[in-house]
Amino acid sequence: MRFARDAPSLAEALPGTEVLLVWDFLSDAVREAWHAVDDSLKWVHTASAGVDRLTFPGLLESDVTLTNSRGVFDRPMAEYVLGLVIAMAKDLPGTLAAQARREWRHRETEPVTGRRVVVVGGGPIGRAIAELLGAVGMDVTLVGRREFGDLPRLLPSAEWLVLAAPLTDATRGMLDAETIALLPPTARVINVGRGALVVEPDLVAALQEGRLAGAALDVFATEPLPADSPLWTLPGVIVSPHMSGDLIGWREQLVEVFRDNLARYVAGEPLRNVVDKTLGYVTTGGGT
Amino acid sequence: MRFARDAPSLAEALPGTEVLLVWDFLSDAVREAWHAVDDSLKWVHTASAGVDRLTFPGLLESDVTLTNSRGVFDRPMAEYVLGLVIAMAKDLPGTLAAQARREWRHRETEPVTGRRVVVVGGGPIGRAIAELLGAVGMDVTLVGRREFGDLPRLLPSAEWLVLAAPLTDATRGMLDAETIALLPPTARVINVGRGALVVEPDLVAALQEGRLAGAALDVFATEPLPADSPLWTLPGVIVSPHMSGDLIGWREQLVEVFRDNLARYVAGEPLRNVVDKTLGYVTTGGGT
């Protein structure tokens, strides 16, 4: 077993390597070191749900099997999204700001029950989010890849838009000025998928101009979010550091997912969570 | 129809008054002006769920019917409590504080699903809270008046304690040093009932000494919460200004509840939401 911390050390380690575990899912090291891969490499596993940094031509065109950590993040992310929805509906940020000033400032708040939400992402994370928002009585529409064409019909009446799709050629930049223009100005956007689902300058402009009521963003085009990003201080915007799915003990859970698949690999059994490399996500059931 | 803004003007208006609508549910004006009541008064309605300011001996011993606004606040308060639970489990206050510093600070968070919560308050508000927390997969125990004796058994394994009981002789000061000592130090307390359910100095001491992990308080012994209260700045404490049930349009809903009951009164039909004056809350079904 060898460890690699960056592209050069990975390129050094790859020749003769049969199994590659990718722990830092935001690193481009695998793509950058791919030239060093030889016929030994059979399987790449990533300790993440998203595989967007691994769907580069070299890996896609190879015979290497790609698996992800499907399942670990579903329910935690659904809880996180629900928490963001209620926190914004009840103006918890305003409450905490008033508390910091020792100010007793009563406000009327919005209901959650019955409100219309569009969840984009037909995978297990999107489904978990849709299920939990539905459990508290929201009016949920889940939009997977096949339903993208429905968005122009769905967005004008959406009070919430949740992005939880994998980052693929079909979803990159899907929330741009054109899509935002379909939403009512009272709508709020939550992104827990990948930063590149959103054209950030378009979102910033819409928020600055009051064409959207707010946003809660856990993922960004560049992470960590640069200190000079206008998103940090825009009114109605919650910025969190890519943590929506990360429960106490999540690293141990990710290790367990890999350990389980490694046992299958060694025993010659079918692996779990095999990514359809043409689609960019797992299409079969199973997963943990 | 006459309006009264304080005890003296109410005392002036009461003689000959048949129906009294109490709009400010935290006012003691009714008690203070009760000496001016004559045989004309038949019915007192309060634009609140709690009737604790109206269960004084003069009104209790009279034949005057007391009704409340049961139903308006149930679901909104349940949403609010769920939002507080998730916000604290996911450390949303820490996220907002880091955001204010433009600081990218990843943290691991707690799950909500499967966590044990004790909800105190067997009325419609407590039931709505228990139902919603159960809908997101929490392990909920609802404790009404009859189950108070179970608390010593339930609290040691509670991760959350939600107070949503009416304020009566049986519940006043129920969360004191003795009750707090039964909770594990990792527990958090949420109070959306009445401030006097809690012995505030005992709660403050427990939070300061790390014998509780946190609290979210929407109601207080004195409201507005005095600027010099230590609660404003205690770590792990969320202070909100008695707003948990107040949706946009809540005043109109309260007027509607009264209007409906007034129509019944005029028609000689039974009123809705009649308070059992010996218990201090509505015991029959119905309500809006």
State the assembly state of the protein chains. Answer: homodimer
Task: Indicate the radius of gyration of chain A in whole angstroms.
Answer: 20 Å
How many β-strands of chain A, per DSSP?
Answer: 11
Sheet with the most strands of chain A?
Answer: 6 strands, parallel
Q: Strand arrangement, largest sheet of chain A?
A: 5-4-6-7-8-9
Distance between the termini of chain A: 25 Å
Domain count of chain A:
2
Major interchain interface with per-chain residue totals: A-B, 48 and 48 residues
Fraction of residues in β-strands of chain A: 5-15%
Query: What's the architecture of the largest domain in chain A, going by CATH?
Result: 3-Layer(aba) Sandwich
Please provide the ordered H/E string of secondary-structure elements of chain A. Answer: HEHEHEHHEHEHEHEHEEHEE
Mean pLDDT of chain A: 96
Low-confidence stretches of chain A: none
CATH superfamily of the largest domain in chain A: NAD(P)-binding Rossmann-like Domain
CATH C-level class of the largest domain in chain A:
Alpha Beta
The coarse silhouette of chain A is elongated
Q: Which structural class should the secondary elements of chain A be placed in?
A: alpha/beta
